[in-house]
Design goal:
The complex is a heterodimer of chains A (303) and B (302). Chain A is mostly helical. Chain A has 16 helices and no strands. Chain A folds into two domains: 49 residues, no CATH class; 230 residues, MetI-like (MetI-like fold, Orthogonal Bundle), CATH 1.10.3720.10. In chain A, helix 6 packs antiparallel against helix 12 and helix 15 packs antiparallel against helix 16. The longest helix of chain A is centred in the first third of the chain and has 33 residues. Chain A is globular, with a radius of gyration of 24 Å. Chain B is an all-alpha fold and 302 residues long. Chain B has two domains: 48 residues; 222 residues, MetI-like fold (Orthogonal Bundle), CATH 1.10.3720. In chain B, helix 4 packs across helix 11 and helix 13 packs across helix 15. The longest helix of chain B is centred in the N-terminal third of the chain and has 48 residues. The two termini of chain B are 47 Å apart. The chains are: A mainly alpha (303), B mainly alpha (302). Chains A and B meet through helix 2, helix 3, helix 6, helix 7 and helix 8 of A and helix 1, helix 4, helix 5, helix 6 and helix 10 of B.
Chain lengths: 303, 302
Protein backbone atom coordinates (compact mmCIF):
# COMPACT_ATOMS: atom_id res chain seq x y z
CA UNK A 1 0.00 0.00 0.00
CA UNK A 2 2.75 2.37 1.00
CA UNK A 3 4.28 1.84 -2.43
CA UNK A 4 1.11 2.94 -4.18
CA UNK A 5 0.64 5.86 -1.82
CA UNK A 6 4.24 6.95 -2.40
CA UNK A 7 3.87 6.74 -6.17
CA UNK A 8 0.52 8.55 -6.10
CA UNK A 9 1.85 11.28 -3.84
CA UNK A 10 4.77 11.96 -6.17
CA UNK A 11 3.03 10.93 -9.38
CA UNK A 12 4.40 13.89 -11.34
CA UNK A 13 7.96 13.03 -10.42
CA UNK A 14 7.58 9.30 -11.04
CA UNK A 15 5.89 9.91 -14.37
CA UNK A 16 9.11 11.52 -15.60
CA UNK A 17 10.82 8.14 -15.20
CA UNK A 18 8.32 6.23 -17.33
CA UNK A 19 10.12 6.44 -20.71
CA UNK A 20 13.44 5.42 -19.15
CA UNK A 21 11.89 2.58 -17.15
CA UNK A 22 10.12 1.32 -20.25
CA UNK A 23 13.34 1.25 -22.27
CA UNK A 24 15.20 -0.37 -19.41
CA UNK A 25 12.52 -3.01 -18.94
CA UNK A 26 12.17 -3.86 -22.63
CA UNK A 27 15.84 -3.84 -23.64
CA UNK A 28 17.58 -4.91 -20.43
CA UNK A 29 15.10 -7.13 -18.59
CA UNK A 30 12.86 -8.75 -21.23
CA UNK A 31 15.86 -10.33 -23.03
CA UNK A 32 16.60 -12.22 -19.80
CA UNK A 33 13.86 -14.60 -20.96
CA UNK A 34 16.35 -15.73 -23.57
CA UNK A 35 18.32 -17.44 -20.82
CA UNK A 36 15.50 -19.99 -20.66
CA UNK A 37 16.59 -21.28 -24.05
CA UNK A 38 19.74 -22.59 -22.38
CA UNK A 39 17.50 -25.34 -20.99
CA UNK A 40 15.44 -25.81 -24.16
CA UNK A 41 15.86 -26.96 -27.73
CA UNK A 42 14.95 -23.87 -29.71
CA UNK A 43 12.49 -24.25 -32.57
CA UNK A 44 11.86 -21.07 -34.55
CA UNK A 45 8.17 -21.80 -35.10
CA UNK A 46 7.45 -22.40 -31.41
CA UNK A 47 9.43 -19.48 -29.98
CA UNK A 48 11.00 -19.25 -26.54
CA UNK A 49 7.96 -20.39 -24.56
CA UNK A 50 6.85 -23.23 -26.83
CA UNK A 51 10.20 -24.91 -27.46
CA UNK A 52 10.64 -28.21 -25.62
CA UNK A 53 12.66 -28.43 -22.40
CA UNK A 54 15.84 -30.49 -22.61
CA UNK A 55 17.27 -30.01 -19.12
CA UNK A 56 21.04 -29.56 -19.11
CA UNK A 57 21.63 -31.05 -22.57
CA UNK A 58 22.94 -27.77 -24.03
CA UNK A 59 25.36 -27.38 -21.15
CA UNK A 60 26.51 -31.00 -21.45
CA UNK A 61 27.20 -30.31 -25.11
CA UNK A 62 29.00 -27.03 -24.40
CA UNK A 63 31.10 -28.40 -21.54
CA UNK A 64 31.71 -31.65 -23.44
CA UNK A 65 33.85 -29.77 -25.96
CA UNK A 66 37.24 -28.50 -24.70
CA UNK A 67 36.50 -25.20 -26.49
CA UNK A 68 34.85 -23.88 -23.35
CA UNK A 69 38.07 -23.99 -21.33
CA UNK A 70 39.86 -22.40 -24.19
CA UNK A 71 37.53 -19.44 -24.72
CA UNK A 72 37.10 -18.87 -20.98
CA UNK A 73 40.86 -18.77 -20.51
CA UNK A 74 41.31 -16.45 -23.50
CA UNK A 75 38.62 -14.10 -22.20
CA UNK A 76 40.05 -13.92 -18.70
CA UNK A 77 43.70 -13.53 -19.55
CA UNK A 78 43.15 -11.09 -22.41
CA UNK A 79 40.97 -8.94 -20.15
CA UNK A 80 43.60 -9.12 -17.39
CA UNK A 81 46.29 -7.97 -19.81
CA UNK A 82 44.03 -5.17 -21.05
CA UNK A 83 43.18 -4.04 -17.55
CA UNK A 84 46.76 -3.96 -16.29
CA UNK A 85 48.11 -2.24 -19.40
CA UNK A 86 45.30 0.30 -19.65
CA UNK A 87 45.27 1.36 -16.04
CA UNK A 88 49.06 1.21 -15.70
CA UNK A 89 49.68 3.37 -18.74
CA UNK A 90 46.78 5.68 -17.91
CA UNK A 91 48.16 6.26 -14.42
CA UNK A 92 51.59 7.03 -15.83
CA UNK A 93 50.08 9.40 -18.41
CA UNK A 94 47.99 11.19 -15.80
CA UNK A 95 50.95 11.62 -13.43
CA UNK A 96 53.14 12.89 -16.26
CA UNK A 97 50.50 15.18 -17.74
CA UNK A 98 50.04 16.67 -14.30
CA UNK A 99 53.74 17.60 -14.25
CA UNK A 100 53.57 19.52 -17.54
CA UNK A 101 53.74 23.19 -16.62
CA UNK A 102 53.00 24.84 -19.98
CA UNK A 103 49.20 25.04 -20.04
CA UNK A 104 48.88 25.10 -23.82
CA UNK A 105 51.23 22.19 -24.35
CA UNK A 106 49.40 20.23 -21.66
CA UNK A 107 46.05 20.81 -23.35
CA UNK A 108 47.53 19.77 -26.69
CA UNK A 109 48.93 16.52 -25.27
CA UNK A 110 45.68 15.79 -23.51
CA UNK A 111 43.72 16.23 -26.74
CA UNK A 112 46.09 13.99 -28.66
CA UNK A 113 46.10 11.07 -26.23
CA UNK A 114 42.30 11.26 -25.96
CA UNK A 115 41.83 11.16 -29.74
CA UNK A 116 41.93 7.36 -30.32
CA UNK A 117 38.97 6.94 -27.96
CA UNK A 118 36.78 8.69 -30.52
CA UNK A 119 37.04 6.26 -33.42
CA UNK A 120 35.32 2.94 -33.93
CA UNK A 121 37.05 -0.42 -33.70
CA UNK A 122 36.49 -0.97 -37.41
CA UNK A 123 38.59 2.09 -38.14
CA UNK A 124 41.22 0.80 -35.73
CA UNK A 125 41.22 -2.55 -37.52
CA UNK A 126 42.24 -0.89 -40.80
CA UNK A 127 44.95 1.07 -39.01
CA UNK A 128 46.28 -2.18 -37.54
CA UNK A 129 46.20 -3.72 -40.99
CA UNK A 130 48.10 -0.77 -42.40
CA UNK A 131 50.83 -1.26 -39.84
CA UNK A 132 50.97 -5.07 -39.57
CA UNK A 133 49.54 -6.24 -42.92
CA UNK A 134 51.49 -9.17 -44.38
CA UNK A 135 52.48 -7.62 -47.70
CA UNK A 136 51.36 -3.98 -47.43
CA UNK A 137 52.08 -3.25 -43.79
CA UNK A 138 54.56 -0.59 -42.76
CA UNK A 139 56.33 -2.86 -40.28
CA UNK A 140 57.00 -5.58 -42.81
CA UNK A 141 58.30 -3.01 -45.31
CA UNK A 142 60.68 -1.73 -42.67
CA UNK A 143 61.77 -5.29 -41.83
CA UNK A 144 62.50 -6.06 -45.47
CA UNK A 145 64.38 -2.80 -45.93
CA UNK A 146 66.61 -3.61 -42.98
CA UNK A 147 67.23 -7.09 -44.36
CA UNK A 148 65.12 -9.05 -41.89
CA UNK A 149 62.51 -11.54 -43.07
CA UNK A 150 58.96 -10.26 -42.98
CA UNK A 151 56.64 -11.66 -40.33
CA UNK A 152 53.18 -12.90 -41.30
CA UNK A 153 51.51 -11.25 -38.31
CA UNK A 154 48.03 -12.35 -39.27
CA UNK A 155 49.22 -15.98 -39.34
CA UNK A 156 51.03 -15.88 -35.97
CA UNK A 157 48.57 -16.54 -33.14
CA UNK A 158 50.93 -16.39 -30.16
CA UNK A 159 51.81 -12.75 -30.67
CA UNK A 160 48.24 -11.44 -30.82
CA UNK A 161 47.52 -11.21 -27.09
CA UNK A 162 50.37 -8.69 -26.95
CA UNK A 163 49.27 -6.83 -30.06
CA UNK A 164 45.68 -6.62 -28.81
CA UNK A 165 46.90 -5.36 -25.43
CA UNK A 166 48.91 -2.61 -27.08
CA UNK A 167 45.92 -1.63 -29.22
CA UNK A 168 43.56 -1.52 -26.25
CA UNK A 169 46.00 0.58 -24.26
CA UNK A 170 46.47 2.84 -27.28
CA UNK A 171 42.74 3.41 -27.61
CA UNK A 172 41.65 3.64 -23.96
CA UNK A 173 44.62 4.81 -21.87
CA UNK A 174 44.12 8.46 -22.87
CA UNK A 175 40.48 8.31 -21.88
CA UNK A 176 41.25 6.73 -18.51
CA UNK A 177 44.09 9.17 -17.92
CA UNK A 178 41.61 12.03 -18.12
CA UNK A 179 39.47 10.47 -15.40
CA UNK A 180 42.59 10.05 -13.28
CA UNK A 181 43.81 13.55 -14.07
CA UNK A 182 40.47 14.90 -12.87
CA UNK A 183 41.00 13.06 -9.61
CA UNK A 184 44.52 14.51 -9.32
CA UNK A 185 43.19 18.02 -9.90
CA UNK A 186 40.85 17.41 -6.99
CA UNK A 187 43.76 16.91 -4.60
CA UNK A 188 44.22 19.91 -2.34
CA UNK A 189 47.21 22.08 -3.19
CA UNK A 190 48.06 22.38 0.49
CA UNK A 191 49.57 18.89 0.53
CA UNK A 192 52.07 19.91 -2.11
CA UNK A 193 52.77 23.24 -0.47
CA UNK A 194 53.69 21.69 2.84
CA UNK A 195 55.67 18.92 1.09
CA UNK A 196 57.70 21.56 -0.74
CA UNK A 197 58.41 23.40 2.49
CA UNK A 198 59.72 20.13 3.93
CA UNK A 199 62.01 19.87 0.89
CA UNK A 200 60.27 17.01 -0.93
CA UNK A 201 61.43 16.52 -4.52
CA UNK A 202 58.93 16.27 -7.36
CA UNK A 203 59.45 12.53 -7.51
CA UNK A 204 58.70 12.27 -3.80
CA UNK A 205 55.59 14.40 -4.23
CA UNK A 206 54.40 12.03 -6.94
CA UNK A 207 55.07 8.82 -5.04
CA UNK A 208 54.16 10.01 -1.56
CA UNK A 209 51.19 12.29 -2.22
CA UNK A 210 49.65 11.92 -5.66
CA UNK A 211 49.77 8.13 -6.01
CA UNK A 212 48.35 7.30 -2.57
CA UNK A 213 45.54 9.81 -3.06
CA UNK A 214 44.82 8.35 -6.51
CA UNK A 215 44.49 4.88 -5.05
CA UNK A 216 40.69 4.92 -4.52
CA UNK A 217 40.07 5.99 -8.12
CA UNK A 218 42.46 3.36 -9.44
CA UNK A 219 40.78 0.70 -7.31
CA UNK A 220 37.33 1.67 -8.56
CA UNK A 221 38.50 1.55 -12.19
CA UNK A 222 40.16 -1.82 -11.59
CA UNK A 223 37.07 -3.20 -9.88
CA UNK A 224 34.85 -2.12 -12.75
CA UNK A 225 37.25 -3.94 -15.07
CA UNK A 226 37.37 -7.07 -12.92
CA UNK A 227 33.59 -7.09 -12.75
CA UNK A 228 33.53 -7.44 -16.52
CA UNK A 229 36.42 -9.87 -16.78
CA UNK A 230 34.24 -12.62 -18.27
CA UNK A 231 32.84 -10.28 -20.91
CA UNK A 232 35.15 -10.22 -23.91
CA UNK A 233 35.47 -7.02 -25.91
CA UNK A 234 33.42 -8.19 -28.89
CA UNK A 235 33.51 -4.86 -30.72
CA UNK A 236 37.30 -4.84 -30.64
CA UNK A 237 38.16 -8.48 -31.24
CA UNK A 238 35.59 -9.17 -33.92
CA UNK A 239 36.55 -5.99 -35.77
CA UNK A 240 40.27 -6.78 -35.79
CA UNK A 241 40.38 -10.59 -35.98
CA UNK A 242 37.09 -11.02 -37.90
CA UNK A 243 36.72 -14.64 -39.02
CA UNK A 244 40.44 -15.33 -39.30
CA UNK A 245 40.39 -18.86 -37.85
CA UNK A 246 44.19 -19.06 -37.74
CA UNK A 247 44.19 -16.62 -34.82
CA UNK A 248 41.28 -18.16 -32.88
CA UNK A 249 43.56 -20.24 -30.66
CA UNK A 250 44.81 -17.13 -28.87
CA UNK A 251 42.06 -14.57 -29.51
CA UNK A 252 38.67 -16.30 -29.52
CA UNK A 253 36.69 -15.12 -26.49
CA UNK A 254 33.32 -16.15 -25.07
CA UNK A 255 31.53 -13.31 -26.86
CA UNK A 256 32.89 -14.01 -30.33
CA UNK A 257 32.26 -17.73 -29.82
CA UNK A 258 28.63 -17.28 -28.80
CA UNK A 259 28.11 -14.78 -31.60
CA UNK A 260 29.30 -17.32 -34.16
CA UNK A 261 27.13 -20.01 -32.58
CA UNK A 262 24.14 -17.70 -33.05
CA UNK A 263 24.73 -15.99 -36.38
CA UNK A 264 26.76 -18.55 -38.30
CA UNK A 265 25.50 -21.85 -36.90
CA UNK A 266 22.05 -20.57 -36.00
CA UNK A 267 22.30 -22.57 -32.78
CA UNK A 268 20.19 -20.43 -30.43
CA UNK A 269 20.11 -22.90 -27.55
CA UNK A 270 23.84 -23.47 -27.52
CA UNK A 271 24.47 -19.73 -27.69
CA UNK A 272 22.12 -19.12 -24.72
CA UNK A 273 23.86 -21.78 -22.68
CA UNK A 274 27.21 -20.05 -23.31
CA UNK A 275 25.82 -16.63 -22.47
CA UNK A 276 24.11 -17.85 -19.30
CA UNK A 277 27.36 -19.48 -18.20
CA UNK A 278 29.09 -16.16 -18.87
CA UNK A 279 26.53 -14.13 -16.92
CA UNK A 280 26.78 -16.47 -13.93
CA UNK A 281 30.56 -16.25 -13.94
CA UNK A 282 30.32 -12.46 -14.16
CA UNK A 283 27.94 -12.32 -11.21
CA UNK A 284 30.06 -14.64 -9.06
CA UNK A 285 33.20 -12.62 -9.85
CA UNK A 286 31.72 -9.30 -8.81
CA UNK A 287 30.35 -10.78 -5.57
CA UNK A 288 33.69 -12.37 -4.65
CA UNK A 289 35.75 -9.30 -5.44
CA UNK A 290 33.39 -6.96 -3.68
CA UNK A 291 33.68 -9.11 -0.56
CA UNK A 292 37.48 -9.09 -0.77
CA UNK A 293 37.60 -5.33 -1.31
CA UNK A 294 35.19 -4.76 1.54
CA UNK A 295 37.70 -6.55 3.79
CA UNK A 296 40.78 -4.72 2.52
CA UNK A 297 39.51 -1.21 1.92
CA UNK A 298 35.96 -0.58 3.01
CA UNK A 299 35.54 2.75 1.25
CA UNK A 300 36.38 1.38 -2.18
CA UNK A 301 33.71 -1.32 -2.32
CA UNK A 302 31.06 -1.07 -5.00
CA UNK A 303 28.07 -1.97 -2.80
CA UNK B 1 70.96 20.13 16.87
CA UNK B 2 68.36 18.96 14.40
CA UNK B 3 67.97 22.45 13.05
CA UNK B 4 71.66 22.63 12.38
CA UNK B 5 71.62 19.38 10.53
CA UNK B 6 68.91 20.55 8.23
CA UNK B 7 70.68 23.75 7.40
CA UNK B 8 73.89 21.92 6.83
CA UNK B 9 72.36 19.42 4.46
CA UNK B 10 70.32 21.85 2.42
CA UNK B 11 73.10 23.30 0.22
CA UNK B 12 74.04 19.89 -1.13
CA UNK B 13 70.38 19.04 -1.66
CA UNK B 14 70.01 22.26 -3.60
CA UNK B 15 72.93 21.34 -5.80
CA UNK B 16 71.57 17.89 -6.56
CA UNK B 17 68.01 18.98 -7.07
CA UNK B 18 68.23 20.85 -10.39
CA UNK B 19 69.90 17.91 -12.11
CA UNK B 20 67.39 15.36 -10.85
CA UNK B 21 64.47 17.65 -11.56
CA UNK B 22 65.68 18.32 -15.08
CA UNK B 23 66.25 14.63 -15.68
CA UNK B 24 62.73 13.89 -14.47
CA UNK B 25 61.30 16.59 -16.72
CA UNK B 26 63.23 15.17 -19.64
CA UNK B 27 61.80 11.69 -19.06
CA UNK B 28 58.28 13.01 -18.57
CA UNK B 29 58.32 15.12 -21.71
CA UNK B 30 59.87 12.41 -23.88
CA UNK B 31 57.43 9.71 -22.73
CA UNK B 32 54.48 12.01 -23.33
CA UNK B 33 55.75 13.08 -26.73
CA UNK B 34 56.39 9.49 -27.79
CA UNK B 35 52.93 8.44 -26.70
CA UNK B 36 51.39 11.40 -28.50
CA UNK B 37 53.23 10.51 -31.70
CA UNK B 38 52.07 6.90 -31.35
CA UNK B 39 48.51 8.19 -31.01
CA UNK B 40 48.71 10.34 -34.12
CA UNK B 41 50.73 8.12 -36.43
CA UNK B 42 47.95 5.64 -37.37
CA UNK B 43 45.67 8.57 -38.19
CA UNK B 44 48.35 10.06 -40.38
CA UNK B 45 48.97 6.79 -42.25
CA UNK B 46 45.29 6.30 -43.02
CA UNK B 47 44.85 9.94 -43.99
CA UNK B 48 47.83 10.38 -46.28
CA UNK B 49 47.57 6.94 -47.90
CA UNK B 50 43.94 7.55 -48.77
CA UNK B 51 45.35 10.07 -51.28
CA UNK B 52 47.79 7.56 -52.77
CA UNK B 53 47.19 6.03 -56.17
CA UNK B 54 46.16 2.39 -56.15
CA UNK B 55 49.28 1.37 -58.05
CA UNK B 56 51.45 3.05 -55.44
CA UNK B 57 49.56 1.20 -52.70
CA UNK B 58 49.95 -2.12 -54.50
CA UNK B 59 53.62 -1.59 -55.19
CA UNK B 60 54.85 -0.03 -51.96
CA UNK B 61 52.06 -0.81 -49.52
CA UNK B 62 51.22 1.66 -46.77
CA UNK B 63 53.71 4.48 -46.43
CA UNK B 64 54.30 7.55 -44.31
CA UNK B 65 54.52 9.52 -47.55
CA UNK B 66 53.06 7.78 -50.62
CA UNK B 67 55.14 7.65 -53.81
CA UNK B 68 52.25 8.81 -56.01
CA UNK B 69 49.24 10.89 -55.11
CA UNK B 70 45.78 10.64 -56.64
CA UNK B 71 42.13 11.03 -55.84
CA UNK B 72 40.90 7.87 -57.56
CA UNK B 73 39.77 6.21 -54.32
CA UNK B 74 37.48 9.10 -53.42
CA UNK B 75 36.23 9.46 -56.97
CA UNK B 76 35.39 5.78 -56.96
CA UNK B 77 33.82 5.86 -53.52
CA UNK B 78 31.36 8.59 -54.49
CA UNK B 79 30.51 7.07 -57.87
CA UNK B 80 27.65 5.01 -56.53
CA UNK B 81 25.23 6.44 -54.01
CA UNK B 82 25.84 3.81 -51.33
CA UNK B 83 28.12 6.12 -49.34
CA UNK B 84 25.63 8.97 -49.42
CA UNK B 85 22.76 6.74 -48.37
CA UNK B 86 24.85 5.29 -45.53
CA UNK B 87 25.75 8.81 -44.46
CA UNK B 88 22.05 9.59 -44.37
CA UNK B 89 21.32 6.53 -42.24
CA UNK B 90 24.08 7.33 -39.76
CA UNK B 91 23.06 11.00 -39.57
CA UNK B 92 19.43 10.13 -38.90
CA UNK B 93 20.27 7.46 -36.34
CA UNK B 94 22.78 9.71 -34.57
CA UNK B 95 20.50 12.76 -34.66
CA UNK B 96 17.26 11.11 -33.58
CA UNK B 97 19.02 8.74 -31.18
CA UNK B 98 20.93 11.50 -29.41
CA UNK B 99 17.94 13.80 -28.95
CA UNK B 100 15.60 11.08 -27.72
CA UNK B 101 18.25 9.45 -25.53
CA UNK B 102 19.02 12.81 -23.92
CA UNK B 103 15.43 13.42 -22.92
CA UNK B 104 14.81 9.89 -21.75
CA UNK B 105 18.03 9.85 -19.71
CA UNK B 106 17.67 13.38 -18.29
CA UNK B 107 14.14 12.74 -17.02
CA UNK B 108 14.93 9.24 -15.75
CA UNK B 109 18.02 10.42 -13.89
CA UNK B 110 16.03 13.32 -12.41
CA UNK B 111 13.80 10.83 -10.63
CA UNK B 112 16.82 8.77 -9.48
CA UNK B 113 18.31 11.89 -7.93
CA UNK B 114 15.14 13.49 -6.56
CA UNK B 115 15.42 14.00 -2.78
CA UNK B 116 11.69 13.49 -2.20
CA UNK B 117 11.64 10.06 -3.81
CA UNK B 118 11.70 7.09 -1.47
CA UNK B 119 12.50 4.37 -4.00
CA UNK B 120 15.43 5.91 -5.80
CA UNK B 121 17.84 3.31 -4.41
CA UNK B 122 15.68 0.58 -5.89
CA UNK B 123 15.64 2.43 -9.20
CA UNK B 124 19.43 2.82 -9.10
CA UNK B 125 19.85 -0.90 -8.46
CA UNK B 126 17.58 -1.66 -11.41
CA UNK B 127 19.82 0.50 -13.56
CA UNK B 128 23.03 -1.14 -12.27
CA UNK B 129 22.03 -4.79 -12.50
CA UNK B 130 22.09 -5.12 -16.31
CA UNK B 131 25.67 -3.85 -16.24
CA UNK B 132 26.73 -6.79 -14.08
CA UNK B 133 24.44 -9.62 -15.13
CA UNK B 134 24.51 -9.80 -18.92
CA UNK B 135 21.09 -9.77 -20.58
CA UNK B 136 22.32 -12.22 -23.13
CA UNK B 137 22.77 -12.08 -26.86
CA UNK B 138 20.07 -14.60 -27.72
CA UNK B 139 17.26 -13.02 -25.77
CA UNK B 140 18.22 -9.62 -27.16
CA UNK B 141 18.31 -10.93 -30.72
CA UNK B 142 14.93 -12.67 -30.41
CA UNK B 143 13.44 -9.58 -28.76
CA UNK B 144 14.35 -7.31 -31.65
CA UNK B 145 13.77 -9.78 -34.47
CA UNK B 146 10.88 -12.02 -33.39
CA UNK B 147 8.96 -10.03 -30.79
CA UNK B 148 9.31 -6.41 -31.84
CA UNK B 149 9.87 -7.15 -35.56
CA UNK B 150 12.43 -4.38 -35.81
CA UNK B 151 14.92 -6.18 -38.08
CA UNK B 152 16.01 -3.91 -40.94
CA UNK B 153 14.48 -0.77 -39.40
CA UNK B 154 15.95 2.42 -38.00
CA UNK B 155 14.47 1.60 -34.60
CA UNK B 156 16.74 -1.41 -34.17
CA UNK B 157 19.68 0.98 -34.40
CA UNK B 158 18.22 3.59 -32.03
CA UNK B 159 16.05 2.11 -29.27
CA UNK B 160 18.49 -0.26 -27.50
CA UNK B 161 20.90 2.58 -26.62
CA UNK B 162 18.41 5.11 -25.25
CA UNK B 163 19.36 4.61 -21.59
CA UNK B 164 23.07 4.33 -20.88
CA UNK B 165 23.51 3.72 -17.13
CA UNK B 166 26.95 5.37 -17.03
CA UNK B 167 25.61 8.55 -18.65
CA UNK B 168 22.49 8.47 -16.48
CA UNK B 169 24.71 8.56 -13.41
CA UNK B 170 26.56 11.61 -14.75
CA UNK B 171 23.17 13.36 -14.71
CA UNK B 172 22.36 11.99 -11.26
CA UNK B 173 25.53 13.34 -9.69
CA UNK B 174 24.90 16.75 -11.23
CA UNK B 175 21.26 16.89 -10.06
CA UNK B 176 22.40 15.95 -6.56
CA UNK B 177 24.77 18.92 -6.52
CA UNK B 178 21.89 21.35 -7.11
CA UNK B 179 20.62 23.19 -4.01
CA UNK B 180 17.41 21.69 -2.62
CA UNK B 181 15.94 25.18 -2.27
CA UNK B 182 15.26 25.29 -6.00
CA UNK B 183 12.60 22.71 -5.34
CA UNK B 184 11.20 24.23 -2.20
CA UNK B 185 10.67 27.73 -3.52
CA UNK B 186 9.04 26.49 -6.68
CA UNK B 187 6.73 24.17 -4.78
CA UNK B 188 5.69 27.04 -2.56
CA UNK B 189 4.89 29.03 -5.66
CA UNK B 190 2.56 26.21 -6.63
CA UNK B 191 4.54 24.88 -9.58
CA UNK B 192 4.08 21.15 -10.14
CA UNK B 193 7.06 18.84 -10.57
CA UNK B 194 6.85 18.89 -14.37
CA UNK B 195 7.11 22.64 -14.44
CA UNK B 196 9.97 22.54 -11.95
CA UNK B 197 11.82 20.13 -14.16
CA UNK B 198 11.16 21.69 -17.55
CA UNK B 199 11.29 25.36 -16.61
CA UNK B 200 13.80 25.51 -13.77
CA UNK B 201 16.02 22.45 -13.71
CA UNK B 202 16.30 21.76 -17.44
CA UNK B 203 17.91 25.14 -18.28
CA UNK B 204 20.41 24.67 -15.45
CA UNK B 205 21.56 21.26 -16.73
CA UNK B 206 22.22 22.49 -20.28
CA UNK B 207 26.02 22.06 -19.93
CA UNK B 208 25.58 18.47 -18.76
CA UNK B 209 23.13 17.86 -21.60
CA UNK B 210 25.74 19.02 -24.11
CA UNK B 211 28.34 16.68 -22.62
CA UNK B 212 26.09 13.65 -22.32
CA UNK B 213 24.60 14.38 -25.74
CA UNK B 214 28.06 14.24 -27.27
CA UNK B 215 28.73 10.90 -25.58
CA UNK B 216 25.48 9.55 -27.02
CA UNK B 217 26.25 10.97 -30.46
CA UNK B 218 29.66 9.31 -30.41
CA UNK B 219 28.13 6.00 -29.38
CA UNK B 220 25.55 6.09 -32.18
CA UNK B 221 28.07 7.24 -34.77
CA UNK B 222 30.62 4.54 -33.95
CA UNK B 223 28.36 1.61 -33.19
CA UNK B 224 28.49 -1.34 -35.50
CA UNK B 225 27.15 -4.04 -33.16
CA UNK B 226 23.47 -3.27 -33.75
CA UNK B 227 23.99 -2.90 -37.48
CA UNK B 228 25.88 -6.18 -37.61
CA UNK B 229 23.05 -8.01 -35.84
CA UNK B 230 19.97 -6.43 -37.31
CA UNK B 231 20.64 -4.77 -40.67
CA UNK B 232 20.85 -6.93 -43.80
CA UNK B 233 19.27 -4.47 -46.22
CA UNK B 234 22.04 -2.42 -47.84
CA UNK B 235 19.74 0.64 -48.14
CA UNK B 236 19.85 0.81 -44.36
CA UNK B 237 23.57 0.20 -43.88
CA UNK B 238 25.03 2.74 -41.46
CA UNK B 239 28.52 4.04 -42.32
CA UNK B 240 30.21 1.59 -39.94
CA UNK B 241 28.54 -1.42 -41.54
CA UNK B 242 29.43 -0.17 -45.01
CA UNK B 243 33.00 0.19 -43.79
CA UNK B 244 32.92 -3.36 -42.45
CA UNK B 245 31.64 -4.67 -45.76
CA UNK B 246 34.44 -2.87 -47.59
CA UNK B 247 37.07 -4.21 -45.20
CA UNK B 248 36.05 -7.77 -46.07
CA UNK B 249 37.04 -7.55 -49.72
CA UNK B 250 34.70 -10.25 -51.03
CA UNK B 251 31.76 -8.15 -49.89
CA UNK B 252 33.36 -5.05 -51.35
CA UNK B 253 33.31 -6.65 -54.77
CA UNK B 254 29.66 -7.60 -54.41
CA UNK B 255 28.69 -4.09 -53.26
CA UNK B 256 30.56 -2.36 -56.02
CA UNK B 257 29.86 -4.87 -58.79
CA UNK B 258 27.27 -2.48 -60.21
CA UNK B 259 29.95 0.14 -60.83
CA UNK B 260 31.28 -1.93 -63.73
CA UNK B 261 35.02 -1.36 -63.19
CA UNK B 262 37.37 -3.07 -60.82
CA UNK B 263 37.66 -1.07 -57.61
CA UNK B 264 40.89 0.33 -56.15
CA UNK B 265 40.40 -1.96 -53.16
CA UNK B 266 42.93 -0.74 -50.58
CA UNK B 267 42.49 2.92 -51.43
CA UNK B 268 38.73 2.48 -51.24
CA UNK B 269 38.97 1.17 -47.67
CA UNK B 270 41.20 4.07 -46.65
CA UNK B 271 38.96 6.67 -48.26
CA UNK B 272 35.97 5.07 -46.56
CA UNK B 273 37.68 5.34 -43.17
CA UNK B 274 38.43 9.02 -43.77
CA UNK B 275 34.85 9.65 -44.81
CA UNK B 276 33.62 7.86 -41.68
CA UNK B 277 35.84 9.61 -39.15
CA UNK B 278 35.96 12.95 -40.98
CA UNK B 279 33.13 14.64 -39.06
CA UNK B 280 34.53 13.46 -35.71
CA UNK B 281 38.01 14.77 -36.49
CA UNK B 282 36.65 18.11 -37.69
CA UNK B 283 34.46 18.56 -34.64
CA UNK B 284 37.09 17.20 -32.24
CA UNK B 285 38.87 20.46 -31.33
CA UNK B 286 35.53 22.01 -30.38
CA UNK B 287 33.85 19.10 -28.63
CA UNK B 288 36.80 17.52 -26.83
CA UNK B 289 36.55 19.78 -23.79
CA UNK B 290 32.93 18.75 -23.14
CA UNK B 291 33.97 15.11 -22.91
CA UNK B 292 36.66 16.04 -20.44
CA UNK B 293 34.07 17.94 -18.43
CA UNK B 294 31.73 14.95 -18.40
CA UNK B 295 34.44 12.58 -17.24
CA UNK B 296 35.44 15.09 -14.57
CA UNK B 297 31.92 15.21 -13.14
CA UNK B 298 31.86 11.43 -13.15
CA UNK B 299 35.27 11.13 -11.51
CA UNK B 300 34.59 13.56 -8.70
CA UNK B 301 31.51 11.60 -7.71
CA UNK B 302 33.25 8.25 -8.23
Amino acid sequence: MSLIREIYKHRYIYSLAIPGLLILFVFSYLPLAGHLLAFKRFEQAKGIWGSPWVGFENFRFFFGNPDWIHITWNTVYLNSFFLIAEIGIATLLALFLNEVRHALFKRFLQSVVFLPYFISWLVVSLMVFGILGNTDGIVNHLLIKTGIDQVDWYQTPWIWPMILTVIRAWKNAGYLSIILLAAITGISGEYYESAKIDGATRLQQITKITLPLLRPTIIVLTLLGIGRIFYGDFGMIYAIIQDNGVLFSSTDVIDTYSYRALRQLGDFSMSSAIVLYQSMMGLVTILIFNTIVRKIDKDSRLF
Amino acid sequence: MEKNLKIASSPTARNEKPFLEHFLSFIIYSVLLLFAIACLLPFWIVFIDSFATESSLIQDGFQLWPSHFGLEAYRYLFMGNQVLSSYGVTLIVTGVGTVVALWVTATFAYVLAHPKIKYNNLLSMMTYIPMVFGTGLVGFYLLIVNWLHLKDTFWALILPYLVNPFLAFIFVSFYRSLPYEINESATVDGANEWRIFFQIVRPIVTPVMVTVGLFYALQYWNDWWLGLLFIDNSDLYPLQILLRQLLGSADALRLTASYGISPPSTGLKLAMVIVTIGPIIFAYPFIQKYFVKGLTIGAVKG
